[in-house]
Write a structure and sequence with these properties.
Blueprint lengths: L2 E5 L8 H14 L4 E6 L4 H5 L12 H11 L12 E2 L4 E4 L4 H9 L8 H9 L5 E6 L5 H9 L2 E7 L5 H17 L5 E8 L6 H14 L14 H6 L6 H5 L3 H16 L3
Parallel strand pairs: 1-5, 1-6, 2-4, 2-5, 6-7
Antiparallel strand pairs: 3-4
Helix pairs in contact: 1-11, 3-4, 3-5, 5-6
The chain binds adenosine-5'-triphosphate.
């Protein structure tokens, strides 16, 4: 059975794309069939998988979502439509700037929160995992991702205390759960770009564990800060290919295992 995971945090630059890509490829390396969906008009996931000019792609997420918007339940989506196949064994539904226009268009649409879900439902039989990289906002695209997902994984950067932002995100998730997607769960918080050399980061790390490990859930695995990880986004490949023996590759390998343990694997 396919599991759909949204990687969400309305704060920008906290490691959503890096986590989505490396968790997705981590799962593919464990033999899982994985689809990555870029739900961010910046197209960061598309670029970080080596598609350097997302604006030149003919079919992207906005194309298929627009088709669904126009044709409703009668819409026939081919499972292969717009899908790119990455050398490291994952599929990608890319995104580009057109997704911004689509988000504006969504605001007045019927069943506007469920358009991405209709797409996900059309393709999910083919995959074990679908991972959605959300944009840094709590707007209509993120609500669509939360409505389509089975769970949300929340990357949090330990460089500042994110209490207000996290509370807002958790309350949005709870609202979606009550009104649009009763089965939605929080997979857990993953701390990213952790730099234990600073007292500040150690302090935030402990506070997040204390505040959220019982209520929301925190992953035991954390992702350390590393120049190698920062370099990977320009390489078009995963951290496993770029620096397989490094601490960030090891951490994403552990995160993948921890996620699989959530499924009892
Ligand atoms: N473990 C890490 N160590 C060092 N740099 C990292 C690490 N993880 C991610 N980065 C870098 O931090 C920046 C932000 O990461 P990323 O793009 O994954 O965040 P994001 O939350 O998806 O951003 P946005 O909100 O803009 O979509 C990128 O330049 C990325 O290469």
């Amino acid at each position: 059975m396919c599991k759909v995971i949204a990687i969400a945090n309305q704060k920008g630059g906290v490691g959503k794309t890096t986590t989505a890509v490396n968790l997705g490829i981590g799962l593919a390396r464990k033999g899982k069939k994985v689809l990555l969906i870029d739900a961010d008009p910046q197209g960061s996931m598309t670029v970080s998988l080596g598609y350097d000019h997302p604006d030149e792609l003919e079919v992207t997420l906005s194309t298929v979502m627009l088709k669904i918007l126009n044709d409703g339940n009668d819409c026939e989506i081919s499972v292969e439509e717009g899908i790119l196949h990455h050398a490291e064994g994952v599929d990608l539904m890319p995104a580009n700037l057109e997704l911004s226009a689509l988000e504006v268009y969504l605001v007045n649409a019927i069943a506007r929160e469920s358009i991405l879900k209709l797409y996900v439902n059309a393709v999910r039989a083919k995959y074990d995992y679908i991972i959605i990289d959300c944009m840094p906002s709590l707007g209509m695209m993120t609500i669509n991702a939360l409505t389509a997902a089975d769970s949300v994984l929340i990357p949090v950067q330990t460089a500042y205390l994110p209490v207000n932002g996290l509370q807002q995100l958790i309350s949005t998730i709870n609202k979606v759960k009550r009104q649009l997607n009763r089965k939605l769960k929080i997979e857990g918080i993953v701390m990213t770009m952790v730099d234990f050399r600073t007292v500040y980061a150690r302090d935030i790390f402990e506070k997040i564990h204390l505040t959220y490990s019982d209520s929301v859930g925190t992953f035991e695995t954390y992702i350390p800060i590393s120049v190698k990880a920062a370099e990977t986004s320009a390489e078009g490949k995963s951290i496993f290919e770029h620096c397989g023996s490094g601490k960030v590759a090891i951490a994403y390998g552990e995160l993948t295992k921890e996620l699989l343990e959530h499924e009892g694997e």
